[in-house]
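TA notes, week 10

Several of you asked for a full example with nothing omitted. So below is the full record: structure tokens for the whole chain, then the designed sequence directly under it. When grading your own attempts, check the secondary structure regions first.
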């Protein structure tokens, strides 16, 4: 079943909505109350939309737009916005991803990097895996001399529940190849400031 058919599949939406209706009742709400009448349906559609990444391949997205390029200097796309859901609490986390790579005879269409980020963000996720999946996929799908990915995010599971630390930000980093050289990593960090 492809993404669009899941979002327009009334049977699937109704099955998920019934679970949301039961959850509303279990927490002490009345799902027949005016403000909640359509909430189970809306929540079901939102859940399907927010998890579209399960039906897509980051590798396939990258390999659809690879082009010859004789250069070998770093390519950087910074501050790609993403929205995801923590797999531990199913609460949102969101932030930006910056990606750098050193071409080895080929480059990728820049929009494909943002699309790949969405593939992995639109799953139940942890930030550490999100960062690694993006780095690994690009490193495997595109000829390169090194890939680096920096992810910075805020997690509602830390802000609105549990420790309730409002100013906390999490940063994760993954890299391959030539980015094991600290000088090259520092150049990347200078470029994304």
């Amino acid at each position: 079943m492809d993404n669009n058919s899941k979002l327009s599949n009334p049977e699937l939406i109704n099955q998920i909505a019934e679970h949301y209706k039961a959850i509303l009742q279990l927490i002490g709400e009345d799902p027949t109350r005016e403000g909640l009448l359509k909430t189970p349906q809306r929540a079901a559609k939102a859940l399907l939309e927010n998890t579209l990444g399960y039906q897509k391949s980051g590798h396939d997205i990258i390999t659809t737009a690879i082009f010859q390029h004789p250069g070998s200097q770093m390519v950087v796309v910074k501050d790609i916005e993403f929205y995801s859901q923590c797999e531990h609490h199913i609460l949102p986390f969101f932030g930006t991803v910056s990606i750098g790579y050193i071409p080895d005879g080929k480059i990728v269409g820049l929009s494909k990097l943002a699309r790949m980020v969405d593939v992995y963000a639109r799953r139940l996720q942890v930030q550490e895996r999100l960062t690694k999946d993006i780095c690994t996929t690009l490193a495997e799908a595109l000829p390169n001399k090194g890939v680096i990915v920096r992810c910075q995010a805020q997690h509602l599971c830390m802000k609105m529940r549990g420790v309730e630390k409002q100013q906390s930000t999490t940063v994760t980093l993954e890299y391959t190849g030539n980015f094991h050289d600290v000088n090259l990593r520092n150049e990347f960090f200078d470029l994304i400031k």
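The beta strands are 66-68, 75-86, 92-103, 106-108, 124-125, 144-155, 170-175. Use that as a sanity check on your answer.
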